[in-house]
Amino acid sequence: MSKSLDDKKPIYLQIKEMIEDQIINNQLQEHDQIPSTNQLVQFYKINHITVSKGINLLVEEEIIYKKRGVGMFVKEGAKEKLVLKRREGFAEEFVLPMLKEAKKLKLVDHDIVKIMEKLKGSVEDD
Q: Nearest to residue 62, comparing CAs of 20, 107, 18?
């Protein structure tokens, strides 16, 4: 678990996305138990309700499931579902803001491609 939370996004969404990232990166696999609400509360020193709100979103989206009295587990097909969801949102969440900024800076297509090629080499595999 990463210890860092920031002020840019609600904490419950950061908790949700942290678990999603662990599923996408294979740190959590189908039927693996996710950290308990109490573990997350103690680790991040945040309110129990905040953690529960993030966890409940994952249950509602059918990414994790509850086993009464045992804990929460990664649902079968969760990784594929998350990757598909993020791919669908990629253009709007990342590419569109980049293109708007590029327009402000009067960057042409060639400049953008050159920047992306340069940065692509610096991205490490997780």
A: 20
Q: Give yes or no for a contact between 46 and 38, defined as CB atoms under 8 angstroms apart.
A: no
pLDDT tens sequence across 42-91: 999 999 999 999 999 999 999 999 999 899 999 999 999 999 999 999 99
CB neighbour list of residue 75: distance below 8 Å, 6 or more residues apart = 30, 62, 63, 64, 65
Identify whether the C-beta of residue 126 lies closer than 8 Å to the C-beta of residue 25.
yes
CB 14 within 8 A of CB 6: yes
Question: What's the CA gap between 117 and 119, in Å, rounded?
Answer: 6
Contact (Cβ atoms closer than 8 angstroms) between residue 19 and residue 72 = no
The DSSP letter of residue 27 is S
What pTM value is reported for the model?
0.79
Number of neighbouring beta carbons within 10 Å of residue 63: 23
Helix (H) or strand (E) holding 74: strand 71-74
Q: Taking the alpha carbons of 95, 98, 103, 108 in that order, is the dihedral positive or negative?
A: negative
